[in-house]
Write a structure and sequence with these properties.
Mean pLDDT: 88
Helix content: 40-55%
Low-confidence stretches: none
Order of helices and strands: HHHHHHHEHHEHHEEEEHH
Number of helices: 13
Number of domains: 2
Strand order of the largest sheet: 3-2-1-4-5-6
CATH superfamily of the largest domain: Endonuclease Chain A
CATH topology of the largest domain: Endonuclease, Chain A
Shape: elongated
Number of strands: 6
Strand content: 5-15%
Structural class: alpha/beta
CATH architecture of the largest domain: 2-Layer Sandwich
Oligomer: single chain
CATH class of the largest domain: Alpha Beta
Length: 306
Amino acid sequence: MSAESSRVSRLEPYLERPEPAPTLLKMLVGVQLTGFREDAGLAQDQAARALGFSAAKLSRIESGKGRRPPTEGDVRALLDLYGTDEYEASVLVKLLHRAGEPGWWQRYDKRLMPEWFDRLVGLQEAATAIRTFEIQYVPGLLQTPAYARAVVERGLPSAPASEVRRRVELRTHRTQLLDRPDAPRLWAVIDESALLRVLGGPEVMRAQLAHLIEMAQRPHVTVQIVPLDVTNASAPAIPVTYLRFGGLDLPDVVYLEHIRSANFLEDRDETEEYRLALDRLADDALQPRATLELLRATMEGRYPAS
């Protein structure tokens, strides 16, 4: 088997996953097509011209972005142009078909899932490691349903009850990612102010901190708190999520969320800056054992059992 075929064969397990991972599969299809193009000695603009594609279209296919995967006709045309062998082509086309199957989150109303949020959830579902820093709130993957409801109601005070319910349901479903046998490793650094900001009332906060304590003791979850008295902490001004996809030739992705939009960074120099920033934050934060002590002290001291 050639090196290229061996590379493609590593993707076959993704054909058997019970739940499709369309965001990941679109990216994998794009990465493989990029590799085949480079093996064929073609620049991106040369390949686009040869097939009558715009440069933007081929760039979009290779990056795996957008709600929909490329068409089978376009992918087969590229594979033919690159002289891809039959086995490699068949695996890639099968991956493409699976990429067209909706993930669980894509079954929600599109109003709840703008394209940038759709992409984030898809990337989280596919990641092998997730690092996150939060300033105002407990990270979404670690929220209880009651706390998530309070976050939604605070952000959308005029939303009807039915929309709030659906948004909370979506947030709660996302947390099940950490219960999977193949759950990603989660490393969350949280500013202490998030523990003190009362959302939903003292009982909701007590339950949320109890949940954080429980989750922080799982082997694949690390939680660190940045105390308020650490005044020189090198914290970014906005929440940061850093995603890695082990062993799949995919770039690391940094997600930066704004009020009604988000940025996804994939350039290696940019993502490396954020990786180093998260490393510095982890150094400034309490270590996991001390974090558990602070969580317990805050829960009992600020939100005592009624």
